[in-house]
Amino acid sequence: MKLPIYLDYSATTPIDPRVAEKMIQCMTPDGNYGNPASRSHAFGWHAEEAVEEARKNVAALINCDPREIVWTSGATESDNLAIKGAAHFYQKKGKHIITCKTEHKAVLDTCRQLERDGFEVTYLDPETNGLVDLKKLEAAIREDTVLVSIMHVNNEIGVIQDIEAIGELTRPRKIIFHVDAAQSAGKVPIDLQKAKVDLMSFSAHKIYGPKGIGALFVRRKPRIRLEAQMHGGGHERGMRSGTLATHQIVGMGEAFRLAKEEMATENDRLRTLRDRLLKGFEDMEEVYVNGDMEHRIAGNLNISFNFVEGESLLMALKDLAISSGSACTSASLEPSYVLRALGRDDELAHSSLRFTIGRFTTEEEIDYTIELVRKNVGKLRELSPLWDMYKEGIDLKSIQWAAH
Amino acid sequence: MAYSEKVLDHYENPRNVGTMDKDDSHVGTGMVGAPACGDVMKLQIKVNDDGIIEDAKFKTYGCGSAIASSSLLTEWVKGKTLEEAGKIKNTEIAEELALPPVKIHCSVLAEDAIKAAIQDYQTKK
């Protein structure tokens, strides 16, 4: 067993060696290195073939038409193109957008930018289990609502939103429905023939493909139109200009092809490991799982160890690559905005750890993790005045703390 | 974040962890910080009849720098008079532990803790 143990698969994943093999074939002088947009020679034709093969593989995983896939640099760009592109194209119909407080920053910050451009945004509060209440969503819909953006799987707590049900609310009202599926593709079945989603963002590196490549699904029937955010050679039917990165695209295609083949068996394995991890903590006092356990991806466990501060716990767990909050915000001292949106006390938000398990995680690594976490939570609780007070039966909420 | 060696040493081998009887007339207790802010420090001193701090104990909920700041403080105050201990500045703690700017508040909290413990002891008398 190699240390440190990687348990941060929701931050990123290593490229599957089978994917890397395919990518290398599109890079060197004896490989498929042409520009897919070159029409005048075989180098271009071969590269275009590889790109279209990858497009089919991506489309197959989510059951859509390959012509509905637009390549981007990643899910952040896809979110920007979807939300800004649709909001601006359809702004004559209305300027109201609905999203949720636990969305990824790529969605929240894009909505903030649109507010500066004169749009109005409603940020829904999730329920305490992390799920959006459909009745509250329906109640937030207005005459001038043009776009609803709700993520499929949350990056921190792994909960799965019911996108099929949301699509039933938006479609009859002709409201565009965008879904950030960066954390769900390859982990949760997606059927875009069934789900009435209009725009869907994808990333390759969350599912054993390379970083720097993603895609946006743009529905053809009913046809969804976007205002391009990147102008140039008119690639991707004018929606996203820029030379297609053949090796990246081929990598994403192969990663999605493998995901389709292996998702079911892989999920069973991940769930067994995740449940083993959770079971390892179950007899400890004052341990809280964050987010719904039933509507949740197999590889995620987000858990708070009350009366232990998260940063000191991470320091003790240097043999584990895990995160406290999401990697995008872990440079700041703020507790996770996602956990706060669930209504978790700041104390519990400060005490949270996110374990995300993936393709290369072993049972041995999980057992080592359990032992290490138990030992150090115990050690830090011995050091914690709050733990003493809890043990003495003092209600911490009854104390007047001097905030600083 | 990279921690200094001294922070790591105090974090891994904290000195003077423990609790004293807060009702003992020789013991002064200071508890500062707030759970919602991510750190709470409890510092206790035992003062002899000559006004010298004989013993010190701490418990801290907080990051590694907060734990190290309080651990270091218990080492420093032992053997000092109340007056000397009350003069310890947060900047000295921050310097000794090479705390980065975002962690200066940990040393401030430690200074507040010793002042609160001294005040508690004096109020009791």
Question: How does this structure look, described?
Answer:
The complex is a heterodimer of chains A (404) and B (125). Chain A has 404 residues and is of the alpha/beta class. Chain A has 12 helices and 12 strands. In chain A, 49% of the residues are buried. In chain A, helix 2 runs parallel beside helix 7, helix 3 runs parallel beside helix 4 and helix 7 crosses helix 11. The two termini of chain A are 43 Å apart. In chain A, the strands form 3 sheets. A 7-stranded mixed β-sheet of chain A has the order 2-8-7-6-5-3-4, sandwiched between helices. Chain A is globular, with a radius of gyration of 22 Å. Chain B contains 5 helices and 3 strands. The mean pLDDT of chain B is 94. Chain B is globular. Chain B has 125 residues and is of the alpha+beta class. The N and C termini of chain B lie far apart (44 Å). At the A-B interface, helix 8, helix 10 and helix 12 of A face strand 1, strand 2, strand 3, helix 2 and helix 5 of B.
Comma- or semicolon-separated keywords:
heterodimer; A: 404 residues; alpha/beta; 7-stranded mixed β-sheet; 3-stranded antiparallel β-sheet; 12 strands; B: 125 residues; alpha+beta; 5 helices; 45% helix
Number of strands of chain A: 12
Strand order of the largest sheet of chain B: 1-2-3
Q: Provide the succession of SSEs of chain B.
A: HEEEHHHH
Beta-strand proportion of chain A: 5-15%
Radius of gyration of chain A: 22 Å
Largest sheet of chain A: 7 strands, mixed
- What percent of the residues of chain B sit in helical stretches (DSSP H or I)? 40-55%
Provide a count of the helices of chain B: 5
Gap between N and C termini of chain B: 44 Å
Distance between the termini of chain A: 43 Å
Taken as a percent bin, the fraction of beta residues of chain B is 15-25%
Class inferred from helices and paired strands of chain B: alpha+beta
Number of strands of chain B: 3
Which spans of chain A of ≥5 residues are poorly predicted at pLDDT below 50?
A: 326-332
**Main interface pair?**
A-B, 24 and 29 residues
